[in-house]
Amino acid sequence: MSQQTAGTLTTETKRSSRPGGTLYRGREGMWSWVLHRVTGVAIFFFLLVHVLDTALVRVSPEAYNAVIGTYQTPIMGLGETALVAAIVYHAFNGIRIILIDFWSNGVKYQKLMFWIVIGLWVITMLGFAPRHLMNVFGH
Amino acid sequence: MTAPVIEAPRSPARPARKGVNWEKWGWIYMRVSGVLLLVLIFGHLFVNLLTGDGVDQIDFGFVGGKLATPFWQWWDVAMLWLALIHGGNGMRTLVNDYATHRTSRRILKGAIFAAVAVLIILGTLVVFTFDPCPAGSPADLLPSFCPAS
């Protein structure tokens, strides 16, 4: 038994130069967590600005139109695409987190679910990005 | 004389703390609001960016037309409250993880709380005191249902 354990450990050590005992670090679990934090912070700061710009509807139609017009420029159009990409990832990975917490097999399938999140993210962005970029660059 | 009670192995060393477990309710809030926000924000993005001319259609007339109906007023207010508290609580988690000094933690959390509170109050007031047809504004900037001035 001990021989087999040692054998497994040796193979594991030889295959990667990572320190031992890192089932988590550098793998799906860690990167999904990093992306969740980074996208969350980005969305939060956008939200602060977005509430302020929308509040201009209370000031005057001219003030609101002047500011919202800047959202329709090509650079902001690319920024909106990145923002939606961040939101879609954060939303789908949030569902994955809930499943890990509450579904009895959640932990077992967390890596598979990360790749499902990425797959659904790609599909959603393939639906969103062309349509949005056509609106931004097509007029 | 009764025999001394020997507790079972691995029984909790201390009794559960009294009072509301705010961290637990925060944890639950992130999950419940997260699911609601997925529906609300995906709907928001679909209606504003994927219908009609997308981002190009957004102007005072478009937003005024939406915010003139109770449906979109409550949709937007629900998004406002749920998203700002969800985001503020997430930022609080990051401060707890990365800010190492008690003073910097307190300042950062105070700033997060102030930003969230001010924007929730501002946004709620805007949605419910909003006039889609402000007097004296050019008719071509207003929603189509406004009486011609």
From TrEMBL, chain A:
It comes from Orlajensenia flava. Belongs to the cytochrome b560 family. Heme binds at residue 90. It is found in: Membrane. Keywords: Heme, Iron, Membrane, Metal-binding, Transmembrane, Transmembrane helix. The keyword Heme applies. GO terms for biological process: tricarboxylic acid cycle. Residues 1-11 have a biased composition (Polar residues). GO terms for molecular function: electron transfer activity; metal ion binding. Its main location: membrane. Its cofactor is heme. This is Succinate dehydrogenase, cytochrome b556 subunit. It comes from the Bacteria. The heme is bound between the two transmembrane subunits. InterPro entries: SdhC_prok, SQR/QFR_C/D, Succ_DH_cytb556, SuccDH_FuR_B_TM-su.
TrEMBL record, chain B:
It is found in: Membrane. SUPFAM superfamilies: Fumarate reductase respiratory complex transmembrane subunits (SSF81343). It comes from the Bacteria. The chain crosses the membrane at residues 28-51, 71-89, 110-130. GO terms for molecular function: metal ion binding. GO terms for cellular component: membrane. It holds the Pfam family Sdh_cyt. Signal peptide: none annotated. InterPro entries: SQR/QFR_C/D, SuccDH_FuR_B_TM-su. The keyword Protein biosynthesis does not apply. Keywords: Heme, Iron, Membrane, Metal-binding, Transmembrane, Transmembrane helix. This is Succinate dehydrogenase.
